[in-house]
Amino acid sequence: MSENTQKDSAREQGFGTRAVHAGQHLDEVFGAVVPPVHLSSTYAPVKIGQLRRGYDYGRGTNPTRDALQEQLAALEAGVDEHGAPQATALTFASGLAAETALIMGAAEPGTTIVMGNDVYGGSYRLITKVLAKWGVKHAVVDMGDAATVAAAVDAAKAEGPVLVWLETPSNPMMKVSDIGAIADVAHAAGALLVVDNTFATPYLQTPLALGADVVVHSTTKYIGGHSDVIGGALVIPDAELAERVKFQQFAAGAVNGPWDAYLTTRGLKTLGVRMDRHAANAQAVAEWLEGRPGVERVLYPGLADHPGHELAARQMRGFGGMVSVQFTGGAAAAKQVAESTRLFQLAESLGGIESLMNYPAEMTHASVAGTELAVPDNLVRLSVGIEDAADLIDDLDRAISAL
Ligand SMILES: *Cc1c(COP(=O)(O)O)cnc(C)c1O
């Protein structure tokens, strides 16, 4: 074996290769290249106490879910020299089911969750309205400033255990926060750092490599990628923590079904190709929007004047497909644009191949109206799809020129 070949075999496989192959084991019965979808809820043992392949009941384990979990773990955490993922991924029926399992499994009553002042509204609602009843407390801070986070973490620590919850880039303000710096703050206080990586995806950002302890996903968004399946995931490198949360997944049972796992696996295989196009289109749209009459501010980390541009260039491999826009004409202008585009469909959610537009103040973020997480009422959020950029810009031009 030449030295070059040895070097090649030691090099970790690239993202695209892992996306296509990780977890996709050849079907030994028929040789099917695409692993079959295993719908069976239960598995016959060889005899009592002797399972055939470790499977007994679908809430606990299912081969199609395992394929997705292995594939996602390989993308967030990388693989060792035998191709085995360096973390455990656990998938769930939704992003919020994943978050519930993580907090119930990893935290205890009395824990304070220190979270950003622009976390996903549903995460805020879960923590403040549901888990609060079980003794989970919360503190809301500006994650853009590590010193502020450190002060909040120290204050919370005096009251009990702490969990730090970070989303970057954030939704819908597109604020970029320093994952490494906040990991240091969390670890100095003996706390875990959880990063919601839904917006960036492992193609553009790998928080575990920057010091995070857990990655959370709504796989409903870019990972599924086609707006046709709801799901969530956790990726956890620490084996003991993963075991605790896996017990929660099994015992509380909010798992995704085999068909949903299959659709998500299928979407995940093309993540890199889609994200390149999402990001190129979003950059074109953001540059076109900037300075347009009627546009007050464009929030996209790929713009050189975005406050998080340099940090994003350092900790991400691209700036993603989400763009927020504020209009000088206030709420009326924002709503008029949101209701008059043709290609950009007015809808909640994001991350699918088709472009979507959302008016957060009354749609995705209605649940945080009047709280410290409220969003400006002159803002619309664009999930820029993979259509042709020129057509998307024509669509926006028509809607904005009519203001
Ligand atoms: C959608 C979303 C969630 C919640 O996921 P569901 O699949 O809707 O339960 C969590 N975090 C972010 C950033 C999201 O966009």
TrEMBL record:
The top EC class, named as a word, is transferase
Matching InterPro entries: Cys/Met-Metab_PyrdxlP-dep_enz, Cys_met_metab_PP, PyrdxlP-dep_Trfase, PyrdxlP-dep_Trfase_major, PyrdxlP-dep_Trfase_small
What GO MF annotations does this protein's record show? cystathionine gamma-synthase activity
Q: Report the domain of life of the source organism.
A: Bacteria
Which Pfam families does the record match to this protein? Cys_Met_Meta_PP (PF01053)
Cofactors demanded by this protein:
pyridoxal 5'-phosphate
- EC number from the UniProt entry: 2.5.1.48
Q: Does the keyword Transferase apply?
A: yes
UniProt entry keywords in alphabetical sequence: Pyridoxal phosphate, Transferase
The family annotation for this protein states:
Belongs to the trans-sulfuration enzymes family.
Tell me the protein's name: Cystathionine gamma-synthase
Q: Which organism is it from?
A: Micrococcus lylae
